[in-house]
Amino acid sequence: MDQVAARIRERILSGDIPIGAQLRQAELAVDFGVSRMPVREALRQLQTGGLIEVHPNRGAVVRVPAPWEVRETYEVRAELEALAARRAVRRITPAHLDQLRVLNLEMRRRADAGGADPDPEPTRRHRGNEDFHTVIAACSGNHRLHRAIDELHAAYPRNILARLLVDDPRYCADNFTEHDRIVGALAAGDAAAAGSLMREHVVQAGEQLARWFEQRSSTVFRGVPG
């Protein structure tokens, strides 16, 4: 059951099963090669975790998060990542700093290439953004902190987070600039600046995501006639 729940969760977080989509037990059972019972139990588990919800007439659907939930999640994430950035100042190595610079340069190159990029899939094109934050969390030297940040990173589907960088060139450019400033503070050994810049960066990302949900009515996710 836990394995089935994990597989459904991964398909949701990857965007393979989109937000607002209906989850049909029979289809999932066939896809995973199991009976309906473990699928049913897995859906109950995911409902308890808040990833899906059950409607009387539609059954289980992937839950659409409210903008206030997004902002709250990112408020917490901002504080944790700020702490990670401050701690990373004492532990980060020149090799890590080079890795962060390369990740940011590669993301910028792919963004500038636009349609000429041989890999047009947003989630793959911008996976470096998640890697950038993961390097800093790992350099914090606190495994519990790193794990908590990873869990918050997985709170919303990766395809939506990547889509933000593709659809909004100004936000995309700001994102890379903010990364450069964070790396600069880390390289300078300025823990206060690194933490402050990281906090502001993550809060801004949360605001962008919250607005993304606000700008899309329930008709986009639920198929309600306009």
TrEMBL record:
CDD domains: WHTH_GntR. Signal peptide: none annotated. Keywords: DNA-binding, Transcription, Transcription regulation. InterPro entries: GntR_C, TF_FadR/GntR_C, Tscrpt_reg_HTH_GntR, WH-like_DNA-bd_sf, WH_DNA-bd_sf. It comes from the Bacteria. Residues 1-65 form the HTH gntR-type domain. The keyword DNA-binding applies. This is GntR family transcriptional regulator. It comes from Pseudonocardia humida. The lineage of its organism: Bacteria, Bacillati, Actinomycetota, Actinomycetes, Pseudonocardiales.
